[in-house]
Design brief:
4-stranded antiparallel beta sheet; 26% strand; 267 residues; 33% helix; single chain
């Protein structure tokens, strides 16, 4: 049984299609990267796969169950999400919760109607904060944090859900190089050691190449290609999809394909 199955799905916003006829199987324990130009439907596909938006056609199953038969609480017990707009939504100071309170929101699917956190909930929050390296920020208002610190707090909130499937929309957004590597090492470890299924949207092709075992390339709301990094990240493919001239060479450290930009004007 796949962790996620997407069958000929169409979806969009306000009647305007963004995704058209996409099919995808995500195996349990897989680390999948989703790539594509701006506007190609990457985030929309994640939103459909987590029930945030409904597909207008096709079918999506999570662990073998049609997502249309699952309520938000049921989905949140199986799929955790870190979306781009989580960190951005607090930029204007609308949510002055302390970091610990934000991370505790990840336990919402398990809380009783009274909303009281149990010792197990508190332990899960503590573990998540430690993994995301935000324990020292526990009492800080999230509105006072840097963009990178907020991103790590929302990653901790997702980890606190203790789901087997984790969806990531630009997980390294706002993070410096050290924290980019630290966060992706964290998810790679969860994938390797705990068999977590990780699906991430990436703009950075080299990070996707290093951490993902399979890549899905979208263009104009449809699947352009899918396969191993060395099959997808070629100069010809990138020029076809992104319209950019690049050079691709194996990393001297890992052998994974790395993309090098080529300027289009001479100096």
């Amino acid at each position: 049984m796949n962790a996620i199955t997407i069958e000929n799905v169409e979806c969009g916003y306000g009647g305007a299609p963004v995704i058209g006829g996409v099919s995808l199987d995500v195996s349990r324990g897989e680390f999948l990267g989703i790539l594509g130009p701006n506007g190609s439907g990457k985030t929309t596909l994640l939103r459909a796969a987590t029930g945030v938006i409904a597909a207008s056609a096709g079918r999506i199953t999570v662990n073998g169950t049609d997502i249309r038969s699952l309520g938000p609480r049921d989905i949140a017990r199986q799929v955790a999400c870190v979306m781009q707009d989580n960190a951005a939504s607090v930029g204007a100071g609308h949510l002055a919760f302390a970091v610990r309170d934000v991370v505790t929101m990840g336990r919402t699917p398990y809380l009783s109607r009274a909303g009281w956190a149990t010792p197990r909930d508190r332990d899960a929050v503590d573990r998540a904060m430690e993994l995301a390296e935000v324990t020292h920020l526990a009492d800080r208002p999230i509105t006072e944090l840097s963009g990178g610190e907020r991103q790590r707090a929302f990653i901790a909130m997702a980890l606190a859900q203790e789901c087997d499937i984790i969806m990531l929309d630009e997980p390294t957004n706002h993070l410096d190089i050290a924290h980019q590597i630290g966060i992706l090492d964290l998810f790679a470890g969860l994938n390797r050691d705990s068999n977590k299924t990780i699906v991430g949207v990436f703009h950075d092709l080299n990070l996707a190449s290093e951490y993902c075992e399979r890549l899905l390339l979208l263009k104009a709301g449809q699947v352009a290609a899918a396969g191993k990094p060395e099959e997808i990240l070629t100069a010809e493919m990138i020029r076809s999809i992104y319209g950019a001239r690049v050079a691709v060479q194996p990393s001297p450290a890992t052998g994974r394909p790395h993309v090098f930009l080529r300027k289009s004007v001479s100096t």
